[in-house]
Each structure stands twice: as structure tokens, then as C-alpha cells.
Amino acid sequence: MFMDSRLQSSGFILFVCGLWLSLLCTLAYAMGTPPPRHKPRYIRVAVVKDAPQLTLSVKGKYEVLSPHTDEVLIEGNSLHRAKVLPEYSGVQINKYSSKIYAVKIKPQRKAAIFLNRYRLRGNLELIRQKNGTLLAVNEIDIEDYLCGVLREEVSPHWPIEALKAQAVAARTFAVYQDSLIQDKDYALDNTIYSQVYGGVRQETWRTTQAVRLTSGEVLTYKGKIFPAFFHATCAGHTEDAKNLWDINISPLIGVQCPFCQKSPHYAWKAKITFFQIEQKLKKKGYKIGKVLHLSVMGRNRSGRVKEVKIKGDKKTITIEANKFRLLVGANLMRSANFKMLVKKKQIFLEGKGWGHGVGLCQWGAYSMSKKGFNYRQILEYYYPGAEIITVDR
């Protein structure tokens, strides 16, 4: 049976429109427009810890919920610099006092949450801790979270392939940490010991593109997520993870890196006094008395120091070099690859690189991308044996 000519004509028009729309979508993606968003996968990030009080604002409608049941406790149209205080019975927001230990702030539609003036996407959980302080946890879609991470870790002006490599590494690390959360209140915090996270204020168009263009992509080894560590500059050779932590897998074994020589962090100098070290040791519970001498104890294949021997007038101790670095201060003693000169109760340090040295070398990734390597090749180089997959959100 033949169609009516009008139906044939309209059907042809719909076909052409559909074909044209499909072509436009393909061209848009090729030009850098992000692919469609998937169903959100939420992650919990501690944005403020041990606070005696907080300042909360919400521009737009919001709900205050019970965090485990999502029961609506109160609703509001907006909040302006509301004072949040811990109470014996729970959490107080202005004049409202909860009778439970935590509450969840859920913005409605396009409402915006501001905590201590920093804007956050997603929901915000306010928790009264046992020590009588407040913990603020941002519950956020992992892709939105990464948009607030990338600029804190690398420059948004770097080549897009370096940004994409960082996005995949950061996403992998976040998913791995999330798998360990168990009964904790959060999976990550916003410090250098986790991943630095700055919320909406740190989002840029280019870093957001890097996140969107790698949406859902993570690194795995033998089908399992692993902690995809990264650091600023390795200075010639990345570190074996087994030298720092209880982990020994192929993607986290050190590799030679001739790519980060132009990094501004390739070489550094610092000095610290015996007295300063005494104070830092005392604060961490080491009772060795006055520091009399320090010395380096061995090096591993990447050139990094294995241990530091500290002689005191009461006791002599040996500390792993990376632990000593963190004790002294990671920004002062930038890596465990250093030489030490002791002179008149002062230690003069000359070192190379910045960070623990495991996994992705960020400045190495920058130079590789400038040389034409794509993000997959960069990740394959720094995480040998790893596979990139897209996780089911």
C-alpha cells in the first residue's frame, strides 16, 4: 500500500532533520563540546574539619534533610550568612536546632550553596563530631568534583592532553578512595594529602572540558581500580610505590622520566635548624632530646633517600625519608631526593623534584603533551600495564 504523498513528504523532512541533527552533534563533539552527561555518581568530600562554627548561605530554595532517611526537617527560600554551631543535641543553623547529630542541606533546582563564602555544587552535610566541632562534607557528582580539582593540581593553560591525563588519574584516585570509605563520613578531603578541591571558584572552561571529554574513564590493573598517585615533578625517575606504602603492582613501579627537566620544581634548596626539627619531632611524640646530628641512610634506584638517622642527646632514631619530609614540611623539603649538609646546628638541603614521586609526573605529562603525545599515551607511560576503561556510573 502506498503512503499519502503528504505523509511521505513529512517523513522525508523528519529523516533529513534527524540526519542533520546527528551530523551537528558529531561536529559539535569533534569541536570539543562535552558528551551527554551520565547518571550522577556521588562522592563525599570533607571540605572543612574541626570547625568551632561555620557560615552558610543558600541562594534559592533549599531543604534541610535527615542524612540517612532524607526526611525533610525544614524548608526555606534562602539563607544569608547563617551561623552554624555544634550543639549537644546536634547542629544549630541560626535559630533552628536539630535533634540529630547531622543534617543535609539540599539545594532545589538551581539554588547555590556557599560555605564560608566558597560555592559548592551538590549537597552539603553538616556533622557534629564527638570532640564538639563541626565537619562539613560535600556530597557531589564525581564529575563536578573533578572540575573543582583540576585547576588546583595543574595549570588550566596546559595542553588539553595533559589536562585529560590529569582528569583520568584524579578520577581513578577518587573512585579508589571511595571504594575504601566503609563506615567513614567521607572518602576524600581537600588537602594535598588527598586531592586539593576548591569548589566552583576553581572551575575553568578548559579544565571542565578535560573532565567532560574523559567522562567516566578510569585506570585499572587486572580489572581492578588502583590508587593512581600523581605528583608535580619526579626529576628524572618516578618512585616505586612499595618504597612508601604497602602496594606493589606494575602500574606503580617507577619509570625513567626525561620529560620534566624544564619544570620550575626540578631543583630546590632549603635550610632548617636543629631547634626547628626538635620542635617538630616533639610535636609528633618523638622523645630524643636535643638534636646532635643528622645523616642520610641509603638511596633507592630512583635516587631518593631511604631513611634519615637522627641522633639526640637522649635517643637515636631512624625515620623513613618520606615521613621525615612530611614531618619537616612538604613545601620546605619538596622531595626525598636530596643532599644534606650539616653546619653549625643548621641543615642545608639541596634537592630535586616535588612530591612523593609515585605515578604521574605532572610536569612530565605537560612536556609529553607538548611533544604530541595524547593523554592515553601519557597514562600508559607513567602507569605501565594499566588499562583505561569507562566505569558504569
Q: Can you tell me about this structure?
A:
- With 393 residues, this protein is an alpha+beta fold.
- It has three domains: 42-142, no CATH class; 148-248 and 257-261 and 357-390, no CATH class; 267-352, no CATH class.
- It contains nine helices and 24 strands.
- The strands form six sheets. The protein has a seven-stranded mixed beta sheet.
Annotate the secondary structure layout.
Blueprint: H1 5-30, E1 42-51, E2 54-59, E3 62-65, E4 72-76, E5 79-86, E6 91-93, E7 96-97, E8 102-107, E9 112-115, E10 118-120, E11 123-128, E12 134-141, H2 142-147, H3 150-153, H4 160-179, E13 188-189, H5 205-213, E14 217-221, E15 224-225, E16 230-231, E17 267-273, H6 274-283, E18 291-299, E19 305-312, E20 316-320, H7 321-328, E21 338-343, E22 346-352, E23 360-361, H8 362-370, H9 375-382, E24 387-390
Parallel strand pairs: 1-13, 16-23
Antiparallel strand pairs: 1-12, 2-5, 2-9, 3-4, 3-8, 5-6, 6-7, 8-11, 9-10, 11-12, 14-15, 14-24, 17-22, 18-19, 19-20, 21-22
Helix pairs in contact: 4-5, 4-8, 4-9
